Amino acid sequence: MPLILEVALPVPLDAIFDYLPHPHTAHFRQALGCRVQVSFGQRKLIGVIVGHKQASDISPAKIKPIEHLLDLDPILDPGWLAKIRWCARYYHHPLGDTLFSCLPTLLKKGEPADALQDQIWFTTYLGQQIEAMPKTPAQWRLLQMLRQHPHGLEVSAISAQGFQSTQLHKLRDKGLIDYRQEPKLTAQVSGPLLAEAELVLTPEQTSAVQHIQQAQGFHVFLLEGVTGSGKTEVYLQALRPVLARGQQVLVLVPEISLTPQTLHRFRRRFACSLVALHSGLSERERLEAWLAAKRGAAAIVIGTRSAVFTPFANLGMVIIDEEQDASFKQMEGLRYHARDLALKYAQEAQVPVILGSATPSLESLRHALAQHYQHLQLTQRPQTNKPTPPPLQLLDIRSLKLQEGFSLPLLKRLDTHLQAGNQVLIFINRRGFAPALTCYTCGWLAECPQCDARMTWHKEPPRLHCHHCDTQQAVMLTCPHCQSEDLHPLGWGTQRSEAFLQQRYPEIPLVRLDRDAVSTHKRLQTSLQQIQQMQAGILLGTQMLAKGHHFPRVTLVAVLDADTGLYSSDFRALEHSGQLLTQVAGRAGRAHQAGEVILQTRHPDDTNLLELCQHGYSYFARRLLEEREQLSLPPYEYLAILHASGKTREQVHQVLTEMAAHLHPYIQATRGVEEADSLIQAQGLNAIGPFPAPMERRKNRYHMQFWLQAAQRAPLHETIAASLRYLRQHKQARTIRYAWDIDPWDTLG
DNA sequence: AGCACGCCGACT
DNA sequence: GTCGGCGTGCTC
Ligand SMILES: [Zn+2]
Ligand SMILES: [Zn+2]
């Protein structure tokens, strides 16, 4: 009986490839989930066996045999494989490429899937009984030490005591001691699970913990609580019984909050093994963590977006902190959303999920309001924490003179807070010195030669820098257009405000936090420590200030320009802007002192801004939901965006236009047309475009978009699949790059 | 994606 | 003459 193996390969082709079993390996039935080396065209590739069948659809002459079987035991179990299959289908991404983008790099390269082993030395029966024997004093001391460790001792601990491996082997030759091999990371921790006492909870926290602990099977909780309301303590107490049952917990956190402090919070509480998957890990450490989770040796796995692909032996709960955070959505390649995948996986594993947020996404809020999720709200802050955040005050700067972006009333408030020995936090949404460089004589603006964008002016090092393609130029001294020397910065960036504030407050320490200032993790940690030690001080920065870190001495929060995002073409801009402003505002206030939040604006009458300031995020978000429903936008309807780019605008336009025409039968019955003779028509599918993307030219490529909007998932996915079938057989489509973004986070792509 | 093959322009 | 540009075809 001819048996054909189906192999997934790391190629962007929507196909699985058939191979014959290894000539000398009879164990092919167990090979599902094992890696193989195969010849593919002219190259050698590592693949994964994802299935088998009796016969192939292609000519037997073309089928090659597998060259090597790399794993004796599968590295992927059928459950994990099923998840990857679902993910590939949902995001319309090739299975092979999906599977490989989820694996640790060392496994992709074909390294053995073996955990690092420890030698554990222990005394034999003879070694325990023996009383005295002529041997060197060192060997005697070594034997005595091992006798005190009935479960054995790692070789690293033994050599740390100054013993040599020859001494170990001498004793072993005498039959007094022996060793066994064990993976380095183990779950076994002796003693009680709780390593520290649990904090006293507020009534709201208590109720939240009880609800979560009582959950049976798949159940989603939206834990909504302002900054400092104690969400983390709820996570910790909710997951304790899960660990006590011997199950594992997955904790997903935004990129910026995976800090030593966050990890410490978990490590300090539980005497159990915890692995953190962060960008600082070496490939070996990443593989060790992955394997530890897979064999159940990691009780808690904390990680960022990609940690959602960690395999678990016995998953018991999933926690997603700051579930609205942008970093959970991958924006290139496999454009997955870690929160959405985690929800899907938890449903499969029948385990509860906690979505935590101070500013929930409209997606999650909608599910909570529709009772799909259980809404748990924390409105009080525990006494030890800051008081409830102060209201947001709008400061109308239309008629005010600005000094480097600061109005006089704002500067006066800065003076007051700094004189009182407090810290102030200033939020500016642009890094660099100024977002543009302009000529006062002729109006020329420094633009990127490769993009439809202005060059950002940086002072240190002095350079013009495009934030979209990384092009850098020296700062010119004369205008290239009119030779005038009248060149000036336009707008304010963090470096410009830094210079201004240092000059205005020379005595007061200032820390700038943005991508340029904290390019490494170390520098960020140093800056944060500096802030902890300051009395009066100025914190200045971008988004980074809004997330994660706590600044206990800040009493004034100022937003230099609250208007970005109010009039953006992106339909999610308002939601994100409201979340960001609320998060920044949450940094204000000390333990026994209410804070102050000031937003400079040129639109003090803007309804959205007023609602956010007067009624808070919860109310604001509910209003946005109503708007989205009226406009049939997510989360009420589903959206997918096809991003395409090419060397010329015409190329891209032509291919997309032809594709749109081809999709016409799927779409023709757009809203309002009464021709319900097919499922698609009955369910309404809207096509928009093709049209030039915002910032059409990027890195010298022309970008266009094509949108599909639908009330139901099924027809949307059917049409996307049809579009890909069409593009794959289209000759000229090969000259352009294209990719669908399912459930896009923003419309820029 | 990668890699080969094939067909034209412009160089040591 | 050949080096190298990229259009086209293919990968079990
Ligand atoms: Zn000029
Ligand atoms: Zn650019």
TrEMBL record:
UniProt keyword annotation of Amino-acid biosynthesis present: no
Top-rank EC class of the record's enzyme: isomerase
Coiled-coil segments: none
Residues annotated to bind Zn(2+) 1: 439, 442, 479, 482
Domain Helicase ATP-binding: 212-378
Pfam entry (one): Zn_ribbon_PriA
Gene Ontology MF terms in the entry: 3'-5' DNA helicase activity; ATP binding; ATP hydrolysis activity; DNA binding; zinc ion binding
Residue ranges of every copy of the Helicase C-terminal domain listed in the record: 450-639
Keyword list, A-Z: ATP-binding, DNA replication, DNA-binding, Helicase, Hydrolase, Isomerase, Metal-binding, Nucleotide-binding, Primosome, Zinc
Function: Initiates the restart of stalled replication forks, which reloads the replicative helicase on sites other than the origin of replication. Recognizes and binds to abandoned replication forks and remodels them to uncover a helicase loading site. Promotes assembly of the primosome at these replication forks.
Self-association and partners: Component of the replication restart primosome.
Family named by the database record: Belongs to the helicase family. PriA subfamily.
Protein name: Replication restart protein PriA
Lineage of the organism: Bacteria, Pseudomonadati, Pseudomonadota, Gammaproteobacteria, Oceanospirillales
Underlying gene: priA
